[in-house]
């Protein structure tokens, strides 16, 4: 089974790129982030014509997450508990066969310091609370998406320039480590513990051409999934396509149970 995550940076504006990649990569499941489309503007017909069912949680102009699947997904949750007034579309969870998949778009948090950074930390606390329930269930679970967290220095080009960025702040990295400490496995680091591998390159200063990137798109696997991991791939060439997202698709291959 091939499961992907992809921050599309606007699902309608990047639809030709998304459809081209779906045709090329043929993933079974895709978690999309940053739809930047209200609920009624999701391009369902085009997604269905590409061979996928879809669940989506849209929001006008910002955020938005979706789960595409060749097998019909059953929605389990949209949004995280803890702040009833929070209307940002950032979390969607579904059951596909025996697998539970949480698709997330964690807040960016910049500028630091400030209310956006505070919101990011609160959102991470809410995520950890829900993730603990998932992992203690003993079920096969994957959390996938744009975490907006640079876990280690090797995950960013010139880390000294990022010390006060919300993606790399000590508080954020420690919170991510606490999340992993529940028993989650970082899929890419499980397969490639030491390599420099990025998933995002800014549009400015020829970042992609210079490979001046970040690793912020992650797969976290529950203990029931760790031994089923077979492959982890970043389709970095997609970042070089015309009118593409600033993120590359990332996918894992897992063995059947």
TrEMBL record:
It holds the Pfam family Exo_endo_phos. The record marks 247 as: Interaction with DNA substrate. The keyword Magnesium applies. It comes from the Bacteria. Residues 4-247 form the Endonuclease/exonuclease/phosphatase domain. The record marks 217 as: Important for catalytic activity. Probably binds two magnesium or manganese ions per subunit. SUPFAM superfamilies: DNase I-like. Keywords: Hydrolase, Magnesium, Manganese, Metal-binding. Mg(2+) binds at residues 7, 34, 146, 148, 246-247. It is an enzyme of class 3 (hydrolase). GO terms for biological process: DNA repair. Its cofactor is Mn(2+); Mg(2+). PROSITE patterns: AP_NUCLEASE_F1_1, AP_NUCLEASE_F1_3, AP_NUCLEASE_F1_4. Its EC number is 3.1.11.2. The active site is at residues 105, 146, 247. The record marks 148 as: Transition state stabilizer. One of its GO terms (molecular function) is DNA binding. InterPro entries: AP_endonuc_1, AP_endonuclease_F1_BS, AP_endonuclease_F1_CS, Endo/exonu/phosph_ase_sf, Endo/exonuclease/phosphatase, ExoIII-like. Belongs to the DNA repair enzymes AP/ExoA family. This is Exodeoxyribonuclease III. It comes from Chryseobacterium lacus.
